[in-house]
Every structure is written in structure tokens, then in C-alpha cells.
């Protein structure tokens, strides 16, 4: 028995291939047959319906399907891949924080955000003056400002941490 998790339009469904002619989808069992036409083309028969399918594999888990003229992009994972993905997402949520570092030596002219403010990725957060030019430093990720390390008017070295985002 093979188990797959297919995510389509943000909705995850489990598909179990019980044997060479029966699958279980959303708790219901269906008779099926799959005929490979070419490396990317298949005929899938489920019950009395036949579907012409053309596939494209983008990476190890992302696929594009053209099913009877309708295009879908999906994520297809095995049970093990799905469990690993869930654990990675939990770890990322628990430990997620980014830092904004000074890309060059300079002086902090303006802090546009303070601790507790929400910030979107790419949003301007710090104005750094370097070589008589104002540089607009943008957030490397979305989140909440956890800590502001510097103050306006202080000089910083290249690579200095300016603030952290969680």
C-alpha cells in the first residue's frame, strides 16, 4: 500500500493506493486503472470515467497536471515526506527569527520601527547613512520586531546586527 498527500489550492487530501486496481480517496474506495502513454502522458480510468492527464514535475514534490484541459499545480508527498514537512514547519515557527545587519559601515539616521511593531518582508525599517548617501534598509522577512539593537545617531560597522524580527 502506498500513501500520498496531495495539496491543491491549499487543501490537503490523502490518497491511498490499496493495490493495483483500488485507491482510497477521502475515505471512499474507487476502482482505477492507469495507462502510461509516454513519459508525461497517462490515461486514468476511475470507475466509468476516463481522464487524459499530462504531467510536469517541477521538483521532487511539486507537479503540474493538465487533466482534460484543466491545469492544476499540486504538491505530492509520501507519508514520510509529509511528516518531515510538518516537523520542519513546527521547528521554523518555534525558532523563527531573522536579523537585519548593516550591509556597510555607516550611521543610523532613522529607525522606522520599534519593538512590537509588525513588519512585512521588504518594508523599509532603517535609514543608514554611508558615504554621505542615505540607504533604505528593508526587512528580510515578515514578523514582529523583537529587538532593536541600535539607536538613531550611532555608528555601526559592516555586519552589525541592527534589529531582530520574529
Can you offer a commentary on this structure?
The protein is mainly beta and 166 residues long. The chain folds into two domains: 2-94, 2-Layer Sandwich (Glycoprotein, Type 4 Pilin); 98-165, OB fold (Dihydrolipoamide Acetyltransferase, E2P) (Beta Barrel). 10% of the residues lie in helices and 57% in strands. It is built from one helix and 16 strands. The protein has one helix at 79-95, and strands spanning 2-8, 11-17, 22-25, 28-36, 41-46, 49-57, 62-67, 70-78, 98-101, 106-111, 118-119, 124-130, 133-138, 143-148, 155-156, 161-165. The strands form three sheets. It has an eight-stranded antiparallel barrel. It has a four-stranded antiparallel beta sheet with strand order 9-16-14-11, with no helix packed on it. The chain has a four-stranded antiparallel beta sheet with strand order 13-12-10-15, with no helix packed on it. It is elongated and about 75 Å long. The model has no long low-confidence stretch (mean pLDDT 90).
Brief summary of the model shown:
This protein is mainly beta.
Report the oligomer.
single chain
**Beta-strand share of residues:** over 45%
Write down the CATH class of the largest domain: Alpha Beta
Taking the sheet with the most strands, its summary is: 8 strands, antiparallel, barrel
Amino acid at each position: 500500500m502506498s500513501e500520498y498527500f496531495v495539496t491543491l489550492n491549499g487543501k490537503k487530501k490523502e490518497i491511498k493506493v490499496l493495490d493495483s486496481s483500488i485507491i482510497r480517496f477521502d475515505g471512499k474506495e474507487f476502482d482505477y486503472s492507469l495507462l502510461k502513454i509516454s513519459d508525461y502522458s497517462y490515461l486514468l480510468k476511475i470507475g466509468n470515467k476516463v481522464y487524459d492527464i499530462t504531467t510536469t514535475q517541477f521538483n521532487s514534490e511539486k507537479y503540474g497536471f493538465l487533466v482534460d484541459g484543466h491545469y492544476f499545480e499540486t504538491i505530492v508527498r509520501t507519508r514520510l515526506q509529509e511528516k518531515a514537512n510538518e516537523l520542519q514547519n513546527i521547528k521554523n515557527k518555534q525558532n523563527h527569527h531573522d536579523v537585519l545587519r548593516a550591509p556597510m559601515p555607516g550611521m543610523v539616521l532613522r529607525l522606522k520601527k520599534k519593538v512590537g511593531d509588525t513588519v512585512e518582508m521588504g518594508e523599509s525599517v532603517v535609514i543608514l547613512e554611508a558615504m554621505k548617501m542615505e540607504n533604505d534598509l528593508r526587512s528580510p522577512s515578515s514578523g514582529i520586531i523583537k529587538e532593536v539593537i541600535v539607536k538613531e545617531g550611532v555608528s555601526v560597522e559592516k555586519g552589525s546586527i541592527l534589529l531582530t524580527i520574529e
